[in-house]
Model the fold of this input.
Amino acid sequence: MAGVLVLVEHASGAVDDLSLQAVALARQVAAGAPLAALLVSEGGRDAAAQLGSHGVTTAHVAEDERLAAFAPAAWARCVDELIDRLDPSAVVAAGSNRGNEVLAHVGARRDLPFAANVTSIGAGEPPTLTRVRWGGSLLEEARLHAPLALLTAAPHMVAAGPVNGAAPPDVEAFAPALEPADLVVQVSEHVDATATGVSLAEAKVVVSGGRGVGSAEGFGILEELAAQLHAAVGCSRVVTSAGWRPHTDQVGQTGTKVSPDLYIACGISGATQHIAGCKGAKKMLAINADAEAPILNSADYAVIGDLTEIVPAITAELRRARER
Amino acid sequence: MNVLVCVKRVPLTGGRIVLTDDEQAIETRHLGHTISPHEECGVEEAVRIVEQHGGEVTVLTLGPPEAEEQIRDTLATGAHRGILLLAEGEEWDAQATAAAIVTAVKARRAAGDDYDLIVFGNESADSGGFQVGIRVAHALGRPVVTGLKGIAIDGGHARCEQEVGGGRDVYDVPLPAVVTVLEGINLPRYPSVPAKLRARQKPIERITPERAGARLEKLRLVLPPGQGKRAEILGRGPDAAPAVVDVMRELGVA
Done:
C-alpha cells in the first residue's frame, strides 16, 4: 500500500483523543497516501466508524478473545502482522503509555529505530523529524535511518481535526496469529481506585505548593483556598521528596500533567521538571517571595510576597465576594 | 535475588535550559548532574527487594567517566556494586544503548552471575525514548512490564501494578523479568554520611563497549517557542487579593 498505518486506542466504542492526534500526525506523514488504522479487540468496529472523518480509509480490527485484556506484546504482534501484509512506510501511535510501549516492542521485534513523542515530520530521505525531550522543555531535530518509520505523536502538540467529506472507513476484521509468548505479560486483574476529592488531572483549578510552603502543615492554607475554588491541590517534586505530600499530588515531568483553566503556583521556583507538568494550564498565577524566580517566566500573573499572608487573603476575599 | 538497575546521567536543569553554541547539548558548565527521578525510585525499589529477599543490587550506567559520580550516589543508598559502560562523546541512541547493556548482561551471565530482575526508569529524563528496557528484554528473551507503581516478589513471580484511569492494572510475570518503574512507587531514602563513605569502597567494573551507529540521529536541539514570557505583577503582599479575585472572575473560575 505504501501508505501509513496508525494504531488507534479506544474505550467504550470511542476513539481516544491522543489517538486522534496520532491520526493527524499520520496524515502529515502519509502526505496523500492511503491511511489505514489498526484497532485491537472489542469495540474496535464501533470506534472505527469515527475515523473516516479523520482521513482513515481502511480500519483493520484485530479480533481474538485473548485480546480482551491488554497485552503489550500481543498488540505488537498485531502491528507486526499488518506491517507484513500492508508494507506501510510508517506506523504511528499515540504518545500514550500504551502507544509508546507497543511501538517500542515493534521496534525491538523488527530491529528498527523508534522515535517517541514526535511533533512534526519533514519530507526527505531519510526523513527529519522534531520530537520532545525533557517532557517538552526542549525539542530535538533528528534524522531517522529506517526503511519503516515508527513514531508516536507527542500529546497535545499535533492538532486533531476532521477532513472534509470523508466516508466511514472499510472495516476488515482479522485474527492475529498470537503465540503463547505474546500473552505472558497481560493484565490479569484491575483494582478500582477509591475516589478522593477533585482529580488533579481533570480539575479546572489547581492550587499547587512548592518548597516555599515550608512544611506539610503549611499546605493547610492551600487546602482552604482550594476548597473555595473547588480546586485540586498539587505540589512540586521537592514537596513529595520531603514527604510533605503523597506523590499522587505531584505535578511535573515525572508526576501528573495538568491542564486546568487556572494553575496557582505557591512558593514554586519553576524548575523545568515542574513546568513540564503544568504548561498545559490555560493561565498561571505565581505567588512567590522572589520577583526574579524562574516561575515568573512561565506565569501569566504574579503576586510578590509572603504566601502565608497572601493565600489566606485571597481565600478571605473570595468568601467576602460570595457574601456580597 | 540479584537485581540490576540501569540509570542515566543527566544534567540538573534547574529553572532555565541554555544550549551549547553548537546546539548539540545542554550547557552544563554551571550545572550538576543527577539521574531521572524514575531511576532513583528504581534503585530504591531494588534495594528494598534485596533487603527483603536477599541478594545484591548492581547499578549500571552508560556514560562518560564522570558518570561514576551517579553510580557512587546509588551505592550510597544501598546498591552493592556498579558497572560503568564508558561512552565518550555524543549521546548514544536507544538501540545502541540497549545493545551495549545486553552485551554486558550476557558477559555477566557467562561469568555465572545472572540477574533475576532488571529495572529501568520508564523513560529517561532527557531524551525520553520509552524503549531501552523493552529492547533489552526482547534481546534477552524476557518478559517486560512498564510504568510500574508497585512490585511484589513472590517466589518465582513478580506482581506488578500500573496506575491507569480509575485504578490499577495488575500483571503477574514469571522471573527473570525486566520492569520499568515510575517515580512514586516508593519514597527513596537519603544517603547517610557513613553510607557515602562506604560507597567509596564498593566495586565498580569499567567496560568500553562497541558503539553501533545512531539510527535515530540527533541533529540539533531547539528551545521551544514561548521563552522569555514575563508575568503581569498583580501586586505585592495580601493587598493584591482583590486584583487576584478579579482575574479569577474574568477566567470564570470564581
Q: What stands out?
A: The first helix of chain B runs from residue 37 to 53. The mean pLDDT of chain B is 95. Chain B touches chain A through 85 residues (CB under 8 Å).
